[in-house]
Write a structure and sequence with these properties.
By secondary structure, the chain is of the alpha/beta class. The chain contains nine helices and eight strands. The protein has one domain: P-loop containing nucleotide triphosphate hydrolases (Rossmann fold, 3-Layer(aba) Sandwich). The radius of gyration is 16 Å and the shape is globular. The two termini are 31 Å apart. This is AAA family ATPase.
């Protein structure tokens, strides 16, 4: 069973010492923004799984075998911060992870985040996406993924955490306020 952390002071201490961090969660919850702040403050290489692993130009998905090879190379590094959920790669990532931060905001908040992001970037390239992947308005399939994340995907995340990272501490953040508190306690500018 993974060690779920409830004490924010302890979590901030673990975060400050961590050299390999996975930040996971539903799309639109703010994990990329949080990831970039933490990686800059802790001087950890920031790796967006969307940019480095999943997508090729034009929203073509990279073959799974290639994805796993890339992730295997990345996790061998001494330090990194990986932004992306993908529980099918937890078997590769978690054995090398010092801390998992699970951004677990309510679905309405994630939907709002996705629409705000689309409003800002639609028709343009978002920095954490692969080159040639121009932001578009969320379609029905993507909105359904977000709406059903907790019921369909969170149980698999928990299962994979238990299976591949039973000794890895997991901090769950359920609001932007909790994200700000973590950054504040860790001495990271919000």
């Amino acid at each position: 069973m993974p060690e779920f952390i409830n004490d924010m002071h302890r979590a901030a201490s673990l975060l400050a010492r961590a050299r390999r961090i996975c930040i996971i969660g539903c799309s639109g919850g703010g994990k990329s923004t949080l990831s970039q702040k933490i990686s800059a403050a802790l001087n950890l290489p920031y790796l967006s799984m969307d940019r480095e692993v999943f997508w090729l130009p034009g929203w073509a998905q990279r073959p799974r075998v290639e994805q796993r090879q890339i992730i295997s190379r990345i996790v061998q590094s001494d330090s990194w911060l990986m932004d992306g959920t993908n529980p099918s790669s937890f078997d590769i990532r978690l054995p090398r992870t010092d801390l998992v931060v699970w951004v677990r905001l309510p679905r309405w908040r994630c939907l709002l985040g996705v629409y705000r992001r689309a409003g800002r970037y639609v028709g343009r390239h978002r920095p954490e996406m692969a080159d040639g992947c121009v932001e578009r308005w969320p379609d029905r399939e993507f909105l359904s993924y977000i709406w059903n994340f907790e019921s369909r995907f969170a149980p698999r995340v928990v299962h994979e955490l238990r299976t591949h990272g039973p000794a890895v501490p997991v901090l769950t953040l359920k609001s932007h306020g909790e994200m700000a508190k973590l950054l504040d306690l860790a001495g990271i500018p919000a």
